[in-house]
Amino acid sequence: MQNFTFEPSLYRHLCIGEKATKQEIRKAYLGLQKVFHPDKNPDSQEWANEQTKVLNLAYGILSNDSKKAEYDRQLNSYLLKQEQERKREEDIKRQEEAKAEQVKPSYSYSSSTSSGFPIMAFVVALIVIVGLVFLFVDSVDNGGSGAGHG
């Protein structure tokens, strides 16, 4: 079993779709060979040679029915694995976000006083202060009338 290149696919190297006919594959190959031929790219011969090798590989596989069928099978398997990996990563991200939501406190800081304390803390402090005031007033009233003094 031959290992093929999938990024980008051989179809993309030839600028054709997966449903291309043999004639379309041949036409794309010959057209691109003219463009990338090393003689047409004297300033970039090394690059042109690499492009020519890739085009030869793509044409050699996609123009042969059995090699093309094997390539398509492996390409589809590769794409399916890529999709499954993407979905798995999305699921992990969603689970992490859900965990983060569960950890957040149940009260909200959006309704807060200007000093940044939550309203609930402000209300509790107010109740304590009012309670202390009543105790002080009661003790003053009791102390002033002589009640409770012996």
Spell out the blueprint of helices and strands.
Blueprint: H1 10-13, H2 22-36, H3 45-62, H4 65-103, H5 119-145
Helix pairs in contact: 2-3
Unreliably modeled segments: none
CATH architecture of the largest domain: Orthogonal Bundle
Give the tally of β-strands: 0
Largest sheet: none
Distance between termini? Answer: 107 Å
For the record, the CATH class of the largest domain is Mainly Alpha
Helix content: 55-70%
Tally of separate domains: 2
Order of helices and strands: HHHHH
CATH fold-type name of the largest domain: Helix Hairpins
Give the overall shape, derived from the CA principal axes. rod-shaped
CATH superfamily of the largest domain: DnaJ domain
Q: Could you tell me the radius of gyration in angstroms?
A: 39 Å
Given helix and strand content, the structural type is mainly alpha
Helical region count? 5
Share in β-strands: under 5%
Query: Kindly state the mean pLDDT as a whole number?
Result: 83
